[in-house]
Amino acid sequence: MDLVPALEEPLKKVLGPPTAKVMAEHLGLHTVGDLLYHYPRRYEERGQLTHLADLPMDEHVTVVAMVADARLHTFASSKAPRGKGQRLEVTITDGSGRLQLVFFGNGVHKPHKELLPGTRAMFAGKVSVFNRRLQLAHPAYELLRGDSEETVETWAGALIPIYPATAKLESWKIGKAIQTVLPSAQEAVDPVPAALREGRGLVPLPEALLKIHRPHTKADIEDARSRLKWDEAFVLQVALARRRHADAQLPAVARKPKPDGLLTAFDDRLPFTLTQGQQKVSKEIFDDLATEHPMHRLLQGEVGSGKTMVALRAMLAVVDAGGQAAMLAPTEVLAQQHHRSIVEMMGELAEGGMLGGAEQATKVVVLTGSMGAAARRQALLDLVTGEAGIVIGTHALIEDKVQFHDLGLVVVDEQHRFGVEQRDALRGKGKQPPHLLVMTATPIPRTVAMTVFGDLETSVLDQLPAGRSPIASHVVPAADKPHFLARAWDRVREEVGNGHQAYVVCPRIGDEEDDPKKAGKKKSPEDEAEKRPPLAVLDVADQLAKGPLQGLKVEVLHGRMHPDDKDAVMRRFAAGETDVLVATTVIEVGVNVPNATAMVIMDADRFGVSQLHQLRGRVGRGSAPGLCLLVTEMPEASTARQRLTSVASTLDGFELSRIDLEQRREGDVLGQAQSGARTSLRMLAVIEDEEIIAEAREEAATLVAADPELEHLPGLRTALDALLDEEREQYLEKG
Fold it and tell me: Is 36 helix (H, G, I), strand (E, B) or coil?
């Protein structure tokens, strides 16, 4: 919102090079406008103290508290062997809890003079644990002295903005910098049309910026927040509405299935009936395919809700209508697996041009980077002649050499793993833009879907097909209760004894080169426990085979193995020849072994919520109930442990992704692919602000329908240009 010279002024000129450099490197702030849009995280009231009782571990915090006592200790150390080492321990309190501050060496002199009992100050530092107590080591601090002319009343009532800060730049230094640039806020160009602003009772933008950084009352903060949230939602929704509008102008070939073609033949041979959800979603997709504009649909559903079946029926419909369909998978293992399961589901319908193939049959080919030259040549030939109606592949499908006879539909599996360029390259292979179906097994709450995939229509599969078994999940606290871990391995043996198989998942492979820079530093035992490297597949497999799982057939699977070896390991596991597969997250998506009933996830706290949910979906795929054990050494009170407890408590992916969002904010959940959303949401919290997003979407749609080029709204155009700088503009166009 900064195509205004005053807001475009580089910070270097205004604040001087040293400060500007730190702001650019650590906070990504380059211009006056960037700094004005760096909002306070919260406000400290001088009369009201932060609660020391609920400090988050490992985060930079700012607290306002009073010094209770301060003691200087001397000790012997390697640097000061004759007992000349000095350590200042200061205890501060805010009535809700106490916190230890420590200063060492030459750093003790100034705080020893200044931090006398009874002194109040703001302290900033990173919360760590020492001897089981929370502490701040070498915090930066600023004493709170009431200036004589400032009466105690106003001084205690003032709201002190606390900014998202870094170790290099404390909150109050950011505050001082903002004080310097605040006058420029008067020149901010308002993106919201005046009629809309007045209709919603929103304050003008310059006033909102002033009030967010320098509020006099809590009402000021509310006014500013409502206004700034609305801006974010509205500008983003206008961008998405313009994209939907542009897409609706594109031509596409309508694809209607033949009445007695491939799709009918396929449905006739299905051994089960589709769930209601599958039927409803299929109808939405078929309606879209029958129009002369490209379909853009997001299909989301739980692991195992039958998304592949829905996608396959859409692909068959397109083949029926004379086109070809391509399915893009994120890994070779997954592409091979989709290929196998689709050929299996189709039977002789997948044997087009072969003896024994059905008369409506087509050919289903697979294309991956590690294929042999002859097989690859044949697959490419089948695509260009139209012999193959369906192709399943990895990024290899996107290469220039790959040409289609008539590409009608692109299905992208696990959307968040695919860059925009890749989807775009594949869509460019159609004579006219092909229809697009995006699938994801990470259930995304509706509001996130609206904010990020607002240009896609969304279909949701939330019913599990009949016959899927429940999965029991439990947290195994390995540090507090080591006998629980021993019991976990007994459970694995019991499952194998009953004729089933098990997965053990670890965060890393284990043959990485040790970083010599890191190896040189000596660490305290506390550090060791806290910072030990994540457990590795190769080490764990070795320990299990020699120890608790001795006598069982244990194999490993990870991303750095040769594709043929990976495939061979998966085949042996699928055939039941291997009892226990120790793997990294390569098994996270799409691996289907109904006989595998147990999963033990080591260092489970090192995985995200949606990843744990995806992994867990690998068990309980057959008729026997599944078991998932989340092993962690994190203490009970930690947020990591709470996260695991929430995963263990529900199997509902939508519920979990809400929990995930509340804990991690949108950016992480949406991953790199959605960088546009990550950087543009500063004030808007997707879950809480559901209504604002929905209303903004309606207003944006009305406005774009009336004025697609925004000719009458220069302020809004300016704001869009700022939101959609080059890279994001492309991101949105390619989507």
Answer: helix
pLDDT digits (tens, 9 = 90+) for 602-644: 999 988 887 888 888 888 777 788 999 999 988 888 888 888 9
Q: What order of strands is seen across the sheet that includes strand 596-601? A: 471-477, 626-632, 596-601, 501-505, 580-583, 554-557
Q: Judge whether residue 466 has pLDDT over 60.
A: yes
Please tell me the distance from the alpha carbon of residue 366 to that of residue 376, in angstroms, as a whole number: 9
Which are the contacts of 408, defined by CB distance < 8 A and separation ≥ 6?
Answer: 253, 255, 318, 321, 322, 323, 324, 325, 430, 434, 435
How does residue 553 score in pLDDT terms, banded at 50, 70 and 90? Answer: very high
How would you write 49-84 as a 3-class SS string?
CCCHHHCCCCCEEEEEEEEEEEEEEEECCCCCCCCC
* pLDDT tier at 452, thresholds 50, 70, 90: low
Can you give the pLDDT at residue 654?
A: 76
Whether the Cβ atoms of residue 162 and residue 40 lie closer than 8 Å to each other: yes
Nearest to 228 by CA among 185, 263, 289, 271: 185
DSSP 185: G
Residue 311 and residue 336 in contact, taking contact as beta carbons nearer than 8 Å: no
Residues facing 86 on adjacent strands? 74
Q: What's the CA gap between 178 and 67, in Å, rounded? A: 29
Query: What global pTM score does this model have?
Result: 0.66
CA distance 343 to 701: 43
Tens digits of per-residue pLDDT, 575-585? 999 999 999 88
Closest CA to 637 of 131, 95, 134: 134
Residue 723, CB-side half-sphere exposure with 13 Å CA sphere: 24
Beta-sheet pairing, 133-137 with 120-130 = antiparallel
- Max distance between CA atoms of the chain, in angstroms, equals 97
Q: Residues with Cβ < 8 Å from 502, sequence gap 6 or more? A: 492, 495, 496, 579, 580, 581, 596, 597, 598, 599, 600
For the record, the structure tokens of 76 come out as 């012997």
Count CB-CB contacts under 10 A for residue 210: 20
H or E element, residue 137: strand 133-137
The residue behind tokens 């194998």 is: 496
Whose tokens are 């543009």? That residue is: 680
**DSSP 3-state of 305:** coil
> What does pLDDT average to over the chain?
81
Highest mean pLDDT among 138-142, 159-163, 626-630, 731-735: 626-630
For residues 611 and 455, is the Cβ–Cβ distance under 8 A?
no
